[in-house]
Structure formats: C-alpha cells, structure tokens
Amino acid sequence: MAAPPTTRAANEGGGGAWKEEGGGAGARRLATAALFLAAVALPCLVLYRAVAPAGVLVQPAALMPWATQQQTAGAPPHDGLFVDDLQESDSEDVRLERVLRSAAMADDTVILTTLNSAWSAPGSVVDVFLESFRIGDNTRHLLDHLVIVSLDNAAHRRCKQIHAHCLAVATDGVDFSGQKNFMTDGYLKMMWRRIDFLRQVLEKGFSFIFTDTDIVWFRSPIPRLYAEGDFQIACDHFTGDPDDLQNSPNGGFAYVRANTETVEFYRFWYAARERHPGMHDQDVLNIIKGDPYVAQIGLRIRFLSTEFFGGLCEPSRNLSAVCTMHANCCVGLRRKVDDLSLMLQDWRRFMATRNQDRLFVSWSVPRNCSLNKVEE
Ligand SMILES: *[C@@H]1O[C@H](CO)[C@@H](O)[C@H](O)[C@H]1NC(C)=O
Ligand SMILES: *[C@@H]1O[C@H](CO)[C@@H](O)[C@H](O)[C@H]1NC(C)=O
C-alpha cells in the first residue's frame, strides 16, 4: 500500500505564498454545531455529542480562533492583505506554481496546510505542528515538501520567519485577518476558497497531502496511503472498511492524486456549495460522497484508518504504528494547544522507551480537550 512519493534529493527554499481559516475542519464543524445548538434543542444535542463524539449530525470542533483570540502581542499591525506579495510583480498563478515546484517531491506531491493569524502566533498551533516533524520518526525531511498557505497577512509573515515554503492566498473582497463570526458570509467564503484552491493545485498537476495544522505528524503517512484510491481521507470515526461510505470523513487530512477525476470532483464539490447554501465544505462532502455523479466521474474515495491517522475523537491505539494525530473533538484553541503539546510529550516518552516496554506507552490525551464550550 504505497502511494509512492519519494523524497527529492535536494531542495531549495521557496518564497512565498494560501491560508486557512483557523480551525480547518474543526472550525467548520463547530460552526455547524453552533448553528444547530442555536436552532435546535440545546440540552439533547449537548448530551448527544457528549456520548457520541463521532456523531454524524453534529461533529465536534474547534473554536474559530479569530473569533476568540486577540491578535498576538508582537504580531505586526495589520496593514492590508499581502503587502509583500502585492509588491511582487508575479501574478498569483505564477507564485503558486513556483512555490509548489520548489516544495514538490520527485513525483510532484506536496504537503499543504493552511494557517490564520491566531494559529500562527508563537507558542500556538503552528509551532507544535512543526515541532512534531522534527521529533517524529524520520519526518523532518518532510518539512522540505510542506507548503504553509496563509489567508491573512500576519500568518504569512510568521510563516516566512519559520518556514521555507509560504504562500499567501487572498479571496476577493474578503479580509480574513480580522475576527470572523460563525457562518457569516466571509467565513464561508474562506472555507470554500480552500476547496477552490486545492482544485487549482490539482490542475497544475500536483498531488497533495492536505493536513490541518492541528495535526501532529510522527511518521510519514506515505507508506500507509492506499495504492488505489484517488481521494483518500481521514475519519473522525473509522468503521474498519476503507470503502464504506458510512465512514465519517474529516477534511483535516486527505491525500489527493492529481488526475482528471480528482480535478472534476473538486469542481463538482465546489459547485455543490450553491445547491447547499450556508453549508461548509465538509458537510457538503458528506452529502455528495455517495452522489451518482461521483461514481460516474470514476472517482474512488477511500477512508484512512484511525489506527494510523488518529485523533482525539478516535485515537490510534498503537504508538508503534501511528502516523498522525488530530486535535479534533476539541473546542477551544488553548485546550487544543495543551493537548497537542501533551501528544508531543507522549511521543517523546515513547521514543525514549526501549523494546517491549514501548508497548505500555499510551496517550495521556484527551485531557483538556473536550466538546464542551469554553469561556475563552
Ligand atoms: C502495532 O503496530 C506495529 C507496527 O505496525 C505492529 O507490528 C503491531 O503488531 C501493532 N500492535 C498491535 C497490538 O496491533
Ligand atoms: C489543562 O489541564 C491542566 C490539568 O488539569 C490544567 O492545569 C490547565 O489549566 C488546563 N488548561 C486549560 C486551558 O484548561
């Protein structure tokens, strides 16, 4: 089972530039949850989520960082979107191509994540994310293939301080750097911008591993990807069958191979937002995953096991096998950072333990993370 990206021998740094709303999949889910909570019977739903964290209707989530966090102290004042990049004469398209090229593996696969200002602050999510690659089992070299996409200026500046491949992506008429409320027009635009962006990447011929930034990487996922399957996505809950459409996909981690099928699928997915106004990409994905048109395109969707691609909803039980762990099923940025940091500690403990004793190392998470609302 190998989707065989190999590491390029040499790698030059890249200049710059796409961003993510803070919580990626998480934020999307919370927004959905919030709407539900507001609209539907609160107590039942809260109870439901507490007992069924991988629920289908309401998936757990992260708070929208910009809705709750102050701009970091020390962050540059916001002075307009992508000042640095606007001064470059290159078009966004040319910049995109250049950054992807400089980060790509030999088989034209890139690793992509998206970032916003709250998550980019020193000591916040992005630092834990990058640290995991450094302490993981032979994962450091994967940083050479990681492109951090910023949708706001502060995130882009921080990226350029700490990483070689940074890309800023703007959305016409929307300033993503400020505070955003759930389910506002700007918020949804930003979520969908990511889908449109990923389609662009595929059209350029680059396959990608998309990862939310609140996922720590301990081993290369590449050997655990299926040899078959153009669109492979992680799950909040894995049924045990990679082909079972009843799996609950989590858009925070996916491997997508560049081909005509996946380009058409991303087009279809993006276009489907118009038929489902007010919904997030992940909710729409859940609706269209069984659409006859997807089968007609010839797209094979496969679901990744939580054994290798775990999360707080359903942790991998085997530290000898785990590749990634996602801080899903977690509301609140600070709690998220706390539990992600604990995962790094657990991993260090695992790596420092020898032989058979390793079998007894287990996660100390979730600890702070939960689905309960926080008063941040
Ligand atoms: C844990 O993963 C390792 C490496 O893949 C494997 O050899 C071992 O059998 C697994 N243990 C369990 C209990 O599944
Ligand atoms: C996380 O849990 C620890 C121990 O229970 C506690 O000391 C800490 O304040 C918690 N952090 C947050 C953000 O709730």
UniProtKB/TrEMBL annotation:
Its EC number is 2.4.2.-. It holds the Pfam family Nucleotid_trans. The chain crosses the membrane at residues 30-51. Keywords: Cell wall biogenesis/degradation, Glycosyltransferase, Golgi apparatus, Membrane, Signal-anchor, Transferase, Transmembrane, Transmembrane helix. The keyword Glycosyltransferase applies. It is a single-pass type II membrane protein. Its main location: Golgi. It is found in: Golgi apparatus membrane. It comes from the Eukaryota. Residues 141-340 form the Nucleotide-diphospho-sugar transferase domain. GO terms for biological process: cell wall organization. Residues 1-23 are annotated as: Disordered. GO terms for molecular function: glycosyltransferase activity. InterPro entries: At1g28695/At4g15970-like, Nucl-diP-sugar_transferase, Nucleotide-diphossugar_trans. GO terms for cellular component: Golgi membrane. Belongs to the glycosyltransferase 77 family. PANTHER family: EXPRESSED PROTEIN-RELATED (PTHR46038), GLYCOSYLTRANSFERASE (PTHR46038:SF10). This is Glycosyltransferase. The lineage of its organism: Eukaryota, Viridiplantae, Streptophyta, Embryophyta, Tracheophyta.
